[in-house]
């Protein structure tokens, strides 16, 4: 078994009971995501002709074609490709121009580029006259055509990300850019007959000079015959309210396709780590496809249901990875009112207070009440507080307290925001592994601006307090814990990361007396991070 195979961890279905019930109902579908090692344009700031741009994109699309065929052979009904995976990144507004195509609004026109490739050529030529930098433009929907044929040929829904050009008129629309068109970072969804069924323009750009923010936020969904509705969003959007929280909470969307190009950052925001937390906490299925790029520190894709996951994180191999998994349908409109499916209807951000754990799982719930088992022995040191210190974690100044001894009851406060931890180490952990409980309440301002309330138990990377908050993937210390805080937001993303990028999950979480808690016992891998990541969207503009 190679390293990359080892790391493509299949988590045993935690809640087998649910799967058995569902199997009888037949409400399953097969999803696929492809982590693509994108072939980059070595000089993305240099303006090239359309022909060169197409040659570049074709090299990535050739890989897509092979993977689409492979996914279809494995029964996939929907396949998601990553953000920027066809064209690459680091373009300027001008240098991306030859990569642009115009994706028509599927709400206004029904179009299969594969079946009818020439339909929009004249209008596009007119649009593109305004792009002064284009000289060799002939046909302007080659990428759409190729993707559409890929969907049709393989009879699957296909989600891809590409740059979209939308003309606008400055005298009618003051938001229209000076060069008379918008350039959007765009997800396009094709049905299994090649028809464009959805188009989403990324709302929360991550320092992307080539692209415009759409004039209004787009809430985009599409409907499949096999699983009902899916919502669409992209990369950095995952940290913001719009559009995704509105899709999930207000529009009842429980399945999301998520092309991304995410740079990993431990201890809190590695790609698969946050994808896992998001799916679990929002109570949704997330089909996440990331780029593989060693230079940019990008890897981490997966198929996540609130209960289980198939994921891939590999910082060593210079290859792509196709993941295919059969997952339960979660669209409430399809589930109907059948009582046996009630357990699949989750309330977003409410936690999992009443998990029905079958005897077969290795999951140990807190069966004897929330706190039982911690600090039970006559150890007066258990409730002794240690001295707080500060350290920088993910560019934010956390207030931390060290975890001393085998067990303890600790509080770390940043101002009036306090995190409470009960822990018990269950193996004889190596001396050199030190841990701390950290609290942060404030506006994060580096690489994006967003307000956070965070409680995190982290394995420090060294022996000194300043090393708490640094990046490590490894730990040997096994720990049972219960973590809680009085968050001012209901949007709390709970995550448990084990050694070697093993994704774990709380065995319980939820709201109790105005506090959000999570607990976990009996992990089989060392604890790297346990985090309650609260996003206070309302305070982002402070
Ligand atoms: C838990 O699951 C078992 C087996 O699937 C079932 O018999 C039982 O009724 C369930 N309990 C609850 C409270 O849902
Ligand atoms: C993209 O740009 C950033 C910042 O300008 C740079 O650090 C990075 O190396 C570039 N990456 C590629 C793949 O060109
Ligand atoms: C923009 O709109 C104005 C007013 O309707 C019109 O006169 C002009 O021709 C339009 N410009 C373009 C480039 O379509
Ligand atoms: C193609 O797929 C779409 C979306 O599933 C559907 O609405 C349409 O009827 C299909 N068209 C044909 C010709 O089968
Ligand atoms: C932990 O400490 C808090 C106060 O600091 C106390 O209320 C609680 O009872 C303690 N829990 C245990 C299990 O010792």
From TrEMBL:
The keyword Glycoprotein is annotated on this UniProt entry: yes
Gene3D superfamilies according to UniProt: Carbon-nitrogen hydrolase
EC primary class: hydrolase
CDD domains cross-referenced by the UniProt entry: biotinidase_like (cd07567)
Keywords, sorted A to Z: Glycoprotein, Hydrolase, Signal
PROSITE patterns attached to this UniProt entry: CN_HYDROLASE
Keyword Signal carried by entry: yes
Signal peptide: 1-23
Any one Gene Ontology molecular-function term assigned to this protein's record: biotinidase activity
InterPro entries per the UniProt record, alphabetical: Biotinidase-like_euk, Biotinidase/VNN, C-N_Hydrolase, C-N_Hydrolase_sf, Vanin_C
E.C. no: 3.5.1.12
Family in the record: Belongs to the carbon-nitrogen hydrolase superfamily. BTD/VNN family.
Protein task: Catalytic release of biotin from biocytin, the product of biotin-dependent carboxylases degradation.
Protein name: Biotinidase
